[in-house]
């Protein structure tokens, strides 16, 4: 049934049922990894998270479908909220797998989970690695690396290094992370990790606002 012919709620409901049947057939009979993932998305869209998670797990473990590994890994962080499994160690495993399989968001989320668990030295190592990958989510890892490096050592167990923090904030800012541009502005204003320069502080504050407002140059 084409979506162009969906003129009534009943026709739309029938279309959705057919879509689920199609995904199920292609996943389990034809062993199509993308169909298995889309079946997970189907359940997720209709607020059936436990079923969605099971299909993401299936697509990841059987076919190593990158996006499914990422979504399954993320679900393991707070699965108890939807009555599913929660296991941070597994979450790290599957987000790392997603990253290695080419799912860029998995790289950043893997480091973010380490950071959330206060495993700051390991998180920094991963953030620095992903920052240098120059992929879509690199700006997040560059920014988070800067945050860890400028934080007190008694909090992170990582030596505080304002100069290195400035370096990674600058890279994230160049990748249009507005929060990082705020950090660069503050560094110039305070002379933290870089020579004090009020003029550049204003320039980067303006850049942060432009990025936030969607006025990219």
Plain-language structure description:
This protein has 217 residues and is mainly alpha-helical. The chain has two domains: 19-117, Tetratricopeptide repeat domain (Serine Threonine Protein Phosphatase 5, Tetratricopeptide repeat, Alpha Horseshoe), CATH 1.25.40.10; 135-216, Tetratricopeptide repeat domain (Serine Threonine Protein Phosphatase 5, Tetratricopeptide repeat, Alpha Horseshoe), CATH 1.25.40.10. Helix content is 71%, strand content 0%. The protein has twelve helices and no strands. It has helices at residues 9-28, 33-45, 49-63, 66-75, 88-100, 104-116, 120-131, 138-150, 153-156, 162-174, 178-190, 198-212. α2 (33-45) packs antiparallel against α3 and α11 packs antiparallel against α12 (198-212). It is elongated. The model has no long low-confidence stretch (mean pLDDT 92).
- Large-scale geometry: elongated
Tell me the span between the first and last alpha carbons: 45 Å
Calculate Rg over CA atoms.
Answer: 22 Å
The SSE string, one letter per element, is HHHHHHHHHHHH
**CATH fold-level assignment of the largest domain:** Serine Threonine Protein Phosphatase 5, Tetratricopeptide repeat
Report the major sheet: none
- Total count of domains: 2
Low-confidence stretches: none
CATH architecture of the largest domain: Alpha Horseshoe
Reading off the top of the CATH hierarchy, the class of the largest domain is best stated as Mainly Alpha
The percent range for strand residues is: under 5%
Helix percent band = over 70%
- What is the CATH H-level superfamily of the largest domain? Tetratricopeptide repeat domain
Multimer state? single chain
Mean pLDDT: 92
GO cellular component, one term: mitochondrial intermembrane space
Protein name: Cytochrome c oxidase assembly factor 7 homolog
Family: Belongs to the hcp beta-lactamase family.
Keywords: Repeat
């Amino acid at each position: 049934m084409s979506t162009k012919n969906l003129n009534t709620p009943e026709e739309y409901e029938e279309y959705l049922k057919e879509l689920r049947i199609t995904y199920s057939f292609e996943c389990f009979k034809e062993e199509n990894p993308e169909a298995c993932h889309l079946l997970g998305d189907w359940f997720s869209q209709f607020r059936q998270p436990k079923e969605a998670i099971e299909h993401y797990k299936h697509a990841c473990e059987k076919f190593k479908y990158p996006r499914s590994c990422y979504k399954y890994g993320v679900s393991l962080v707070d699965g108890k909220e939807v009555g599913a499994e929660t296991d941070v160690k597994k979450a790290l495993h599957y987000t790392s797998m997603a990253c290695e399989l080419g799912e860029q968001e998995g790289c950043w989320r893997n480091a973010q989970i380490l950071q959330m668990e206060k495993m700051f030295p390991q998180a920094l190592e991963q953030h620095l690695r992903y920052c240098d990958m120059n992929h879509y989510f690199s700006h997040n890892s560059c920014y988070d690396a800067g945050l860890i490096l400028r934080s007190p050592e008694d909090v992170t167990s990582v030596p505080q290094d304002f100069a290195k923090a400035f370096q990674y904030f600058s890279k994230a800012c160049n990748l249009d992370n507005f929060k990082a541009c705020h950090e660069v502005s503050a560094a110039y204003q305070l002379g933290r990790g870089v020579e004090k320069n009020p003029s550049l502080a204003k320039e980067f504050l303006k850049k942060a606002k432009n990025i936030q407002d969607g006025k990219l140059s």
